[in-house]
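Case study.
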Amino acid sequence: MRLLFSLALRNALRNTRRSFLTGLTIMLGVALLTCGISWTRGAFGGILEKGANVMGPVRLVTPEFAKKEQMMPLAENIVELEPILAAARATPGVTGAWPRLQMAATLTVGDDMGEHFALVQGAPPEWFSRALDLEHHIPNGRMFATDDAAAQQCAGGRRSRPPIDAVIGAMAATEVGAKVGDDLILGGQTQDGSLSAIKVKVVGISDLGSGPQNRFVYVSLATLQCMADIPTGATEVLVYGATLDDAIPIEAALAANPALSKLAVSRWDQRPPFSSISGIIGALQSIAAGVIVFITALGVLNTMLMSVLERTAEIGVMRAMGLRRGATVFLFVIEAIGIAAIGGAVGAIVGSLISYFILELHGINLGNAVNKLPPGLAVDSVIHGDWEPIMLAQAFGLGLVMAIVGGALPAIRASRIEPVEAMRARR
Amino acid sequence: MLSNLTLWFGAALAVMLTFLAPEARAATPTVTDLLDKIDANMTYDTRESYITMRVTKSDRVKEYKMHSYGRGQDEAAIEYLAPSRDEGTKMLKKKDELWMWLPSVEKTQKISGHMLRQGLMGSDMSYEDMLDAARWRSMYSGTVTGEETIDGRKCWKVELTATSTAVSYPKRTIWVDAVAYIPVKQQLFALSGTLLKTWTMGDIRAVGTRQFPYKMTVIDEVQTGSKTELIFDKVTFAIALEEEVFSTRWLER
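After joint prediction, the assembly is written out as follows.
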């Protein structure tokens, strides 16, 4: 065994340039892999976590709403919220449950109605705090107050109406030309489909860093209940646990609760767009890692194959002296692993430094590209990496895999060399 | 003797047929006759009415009270009296343009294009259905295809096809009360032949010289579980209306 190790070491040092190039290939592959894993973890992990928070880790809706969700059917609402909220909040592991209403509306500042469209979210302030941390993302103005102005607007007729507070996303505010203090008219429909409009006062302009989220208008639940003519209800009840992983047991517990049997219960990853993209994200990560491993392994294979060809006669002599096939394979694989260990270690360190100091701390700005994503995908325009110490070991391990994959074929080839033919070839 | 009798019988038969033939032809009216008589009942120079509209969607029923005005084929106005959240909402139609005054925001919203064919206040009647008073004679041609009995009333069944592309329903099958000349039942079709709505009219009463249905029911055949009833609480025709009613100034008054 010691002989094999010393032979492998001698071989690796015999052609230092080639060994250096092999090590460099592995180093680049491992560094690229570390950065790639870090960045995709940061990007997709951020999307998933933020999206799950906005969509609700677990959600309760009527079965009819679930069927026609794309059309935002306001008529398919949960009429009596209190017993549903009480049952959800009493479920083990649940840290919060809040109702939410959401509808499309036209935004008007000035006289011409219906020029701009936005999604309007209505929920208790606690939900905005839990899901969006909205109150800390209003650089201009303040959070809306929980007042009963909405109910007074709903009273109808020509009586005077107190203003209702609203926070508008920065992008929507720019599009419609709204400033803090402006009157903003939201034009939508009631649950019965008749035209409905309310006047709100812009008290804050939010910047949640995400393109889609900056196109929303945020109001109290009572405001949207007034607008949609759903006096006591909401279309969704969103249920939260301490972490996203709690969604699985909470969903199971809610689904088994007889008090909630008439509602459809679903986890965030069972609903569009995440029901389709979470699998795609995993597949993309695997494909990207596979491509990097393959290309790097190809480099190792090329180098090791050259090494085998150069040493055909020497292998023949060793085989004639009794070196068994298994030992021949081991000799070349151990040489590849030795080079990979050094290249992989350097690559893991370099990749980790880049991941941490450039990707995680600074991030990569995707600019306006994120603004065209669907509203459920709350993607920040600056994507940060997500590096963890364990990734050092993961990347180093993958470097060794690259070496084994790349070194295996030449090693097998070497083991099949017949001693007589090899010595006759004189190489 | 026999030949004389035959001659006399033949002559008498010929005279009878001569007199009866026009009667027999008049028994099935022409489409233009029917449309003229329907237009005489349903269109007007001026009209003022108080209407209750009841919209049923699945198990939810919503009731609206309206005060409606109409002048000729091109002008109509509606003010909502109830429920309280819609009180003061007004609509004004002038030719092909429609404005809606929303008191909650003190704004006038112009409704145009495809929105005119959307449900009025979420009902099964579109804005056009509610406010249109055009004469059918000028919009449709067709054939009388038979005679049927609807709710004990003898009716003429008529297949109508629009003569222009600007109408809401390119095809209609109507059942016209043979006495009152009211289309007691209508099936409204899209150009593709898809049945969109079934519209029935009942509680026919004499109002002056005309017959008028005090109850209408519209069923949306595309959206199941949806029905709209229109009950005319009071209708007055040929009434002097303020000029201001048909102006945008009235909307904001």
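Observations recorded in class. Chain B touches chain A through 27 residues (CB under 8 Å). Residues 32-252 of chain B form a domain with the outer membrane lipoprotein receptor (LolB), chain A fold (CATH 2.50.20.10). We will return to this complex in the next lecture.
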